Amino acid sequence: MDEYHVSVLLNESINNLKIRPEGIYVDVTFGAGGHTRSILEKLDAKGRVYAFDQDTDALNNAPADDRLKLINANFRYLRKYLRLEKIDRVDGILADLGVSSHQLDVPDRGFSYRYDAPLDMRMNSDSDFSAFDVLNTYEEGQLIALLSQYGEVRNARTLAAALVKQRKLTAIRTTGDLNKVLDRHLMGPRMKYLSQVYQAIRIEVNDEMGALRDLLEDGMKILAPGGRFAVITFHSIEDRLVKNFFKSGNTEGELVKDAFGNIFRPFVLVDKKVITAGHEEQNRNVRSRSAKLRVAEKL
Q1: Which helix (H) or strand (E) holds 51?
Q2: Is 255 helix (H, G, I), strand (E, B) or coil?
Q3: How far, in Å, CA of 272 to CA of 296, rounded?
Q4: What CATH number should be reported for the domain holding residue 86?
Q5: In the predicted model, is pLDDT for residue 2 greater than 50?
Q6: Do the strands 223-233 and 292-298 form a parallel or antiparallel pair, or are they unpaired?
Q7: How many structural domains compose the chain?
Q8: What is the pLDDT of residues 263-287, one digit of tens each?
Q9: Beta-bridge partner residues of 294
Q10: Which of 137, 171, 205 is the last residue of a domain?
Q11: Is 4 contained in some domain?
């Protein structure tokens, strides 16, 4: 399973969950199951883990353990699916956001610029909306917005215009087609530039920011007092949403007061500083270099 996906900040995230042996925990991004297995190791016979993953490939990684329930669904529907399991309170929630190593390494998924493959990028293969639709149907202004916001692409306007021009000649169907356009408009190192563009498209295809907002809202409602919420992010926007939510209970970071002037604070930060990977992990796993872990405890 290690080849499928290497868990980032594994010890830091598990230790900060302050796991109770008899508790109920949720890993909303199961992947290869590294975080889930570590949680299971700390549970007794009464403890339970509910793990989510919308990617059907991840289901093959489930260990044979009666204490684990793996749910093939987007984590934005956390409360809905836990209600079906008759669970209304949990003791901890863990999220490791972003794309998995496996998704990047399977050419047919279209997540990586390294392979010539159909433009896909769907984390849920049953979805009818893909990277092909973004690149071939979005208006130029929409392309500018997502490239700027989600990819921080410096020449977003120029690139968006080039993509629209290209698709008028012929549809942009594969990663190879997309790369040809990108190679004509590179700004800075090629690998970094292509990574930024692919990230932006992937985030849009999977509505990752919308899903994160839903997860944070549902997580706050279902987490028991004293329970902990740990989120690992890889993008500045994701990190900002999590930081704001843990501070104020909303992703805008706006402090809400009641009629008496008391500020609503649903969480207390476990560590006021963001947790990042050490040098050893960064050298061992390149993906960990951009990882940021924030942990909050429900009041």
Answers
A1: strand 48-52
A2: coil
A3: 9
A4: 3.40.50.150
A5: no
A6: antiparallel
A7: 2
A8: 999 999 999 999 999 999 999 988 8
A9: 231
A10: 205
A11: no
